[in-house]
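User: Here's a protein and a ligand (fe (ii) ion). What would the complex look like?
Assistant: Let me lay out the input and then the predicted complex.
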Amino acid sequence: MSLNGPWTLSRIEKTSADLVEPVRHHLTALCGRPEEHARFLNTLSLLEHIGSRKILTSQSRGPLDCETLKHLAEEARHAFFFKRTAERVAGRPLDYSDGDAVMPAAARMYFGRLDAGINRMLADEIPVEVPYLYVSMVVELRAIWAYRLYNDVLVDSGLNISLKGLLAEEELHLPQMAERLVALGEDLDATVPAFARLEDALFRGLWRSLAVLPTVH
Ligand SMILES: [Fe+2]
Ligand SMILES: [Fe+2]
């Protein structure tokens, strides 16, 4: 496993360098608009919830070992954290509908297409954990990239929201996924570039739809 492999953070920092300023700019603007910000936080809750549910459904036939259950529990807690924060900012209960989240259909599509695309690219005869580990790994890379940026913006905005605890968990998930894949005989340097390219295209598509926020009256 090379330190500069395609699964590393330095790689995504390079490929997404052009996204940093527009994303930061948009997040900064969101922090000044509580109602929209709450809907965005609620969309992050939805994405975390989809992530935890995908672990559950994809591993229901697998051993569902302690480490996988821990990952599942942590992703479910991230969904709870964002939902609770979103409701605090909104001052009301929120669900995952169009009115309460930002383009929830686009968020679902991002995850669904990534999952389907990675599954399609993998061989048929593989251990049941492999697709879950690859999808998680690619999502962890994006989550760490985005949450670091978002946390910096939140600190600057003076809002009392910190992603530090959540980020620490995502930063542990990434090497765990990589190590388990290598233990199963996967060659990450050979497989991950295509998955990361797919994720990059899907994230850019998702970001384009999320950044065009319809104003809710
Ligand atoms: Fe998460
Ligand atoms: Fe994670």
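Summary: Helices lie at 9-15, 20-31, 34-58, 66-90, 104-121, 129-157, 164-183, 188-211.
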